[in-house]
Design a protein that fits this description.
Helix content: 40-55%
Largest sheet: 5 strands, mixed
Number of helices: 8
Order of helices and strands: HHHEEHEHEEEEHHEEH
Low-confidence stretches: none
Structural class: alpha+beta
Strand content: 15-25%
Shape: globular
Number of strands: 9
Radius of gyration: 19 Å
Length: 226
């Protein structure tokens, strides 16, 4: 994708963000990993991102591996009008020793790692989500639109249910499994719930793409059979 449509003002704001990030890299790491001056750092980061676009988001994925970089991912939340800005942010990023920069939330290729519950947690504003601990069940499936209504179950939902950022955080995690584009193509509605003691009838969230593929295969078979 090309980014020639960006205005000089937007380019300036992107460069300003990375200049601030580079100058405050160590403070950002301390805030995220050790909660030192956390509120102030996150507020400033959000202000810089909002200056580029209030509809664009970002997540930071920490790692428990000593030699692996912390990943910052910029997302358009499926809004194609923001694609150029997200791409430009990745392209303009400096070379970091401690960070890797990614545009868009892409479907994970580490399903086996998730199944073994070895995946790293996503760190959000004031809570974290471990994707291997999330489940879902289907409320409804619209055959014509090929879209699902689902419930996603998480640990400690009752503790975080009033968090204004929770819905966006779950949306971000969903995109990790089926990508940004696929989320808006296949998911119509998401409801949240507390993980029950018995998860026998639930499906791991990391199996969502496989579930969607099976539904599409069944639909193709029915259409062919007719």
């Amino acid at each position: 994708m090309k980014t020639q449509n960006l205005t000089p003002t937007t380019i300036k704001k992107i460069n300003s963000f990375w200049k601030w990030f580079l100058n405050n890299e160590i403070e950002i790491i301390k805030a995220l990993l050790y909660y030192q001056n956390y509120t102030d750092i996150i507020t400033k980061m959000n202000r810089k991102i909002n200056a580029i676009s209030k509809k664009m988001g970002y997540i930071i994925k920490a790692t428990t591996e000593e030699n692996e970089k912390i990943k910052i991912i910029f997302t358009a939340h499926g809004n194609s009008k923001l694609f150029d800005k997200v791409i430009a942010l990745e392209k303009a990023a400096p070379n970091f020793h401690n960070w890797s920069v990614q545009s868009f939330i892409k479907a994970t290729k580490e399903i086996e790692k998730l199944k073994k519950e070895l995946n790293d947690a996503y760190i959000f504003h004031d809570f974290e989500l471990k994707t291997s601990e999330l489940y879902f069940s289907v409320i409804d499936y619209n055959l014509q639109k090929k879209k699902l209504n689902i419930i996603i179950f998480m640990k400690n939902y009752t503790f975080h249910c009033e968090n204004d950022f929770l819905e966006e955080a779950v949306c971000i995690v969903l995109q990790e499994f089926i990508s940004e584009v696929a989320l808006y193509k296949h998911i119509n509605f998401v409801q949240m719930g507390q993980t029950p003691n018995n998860t026998h009838n639930l499906v791991h969230l990391y199996e969502l793409q496989e579930y969607i593929d099976k539904l599409n295969e069944i639909n193709r078979f029915k259409n062919t059979d007719l």
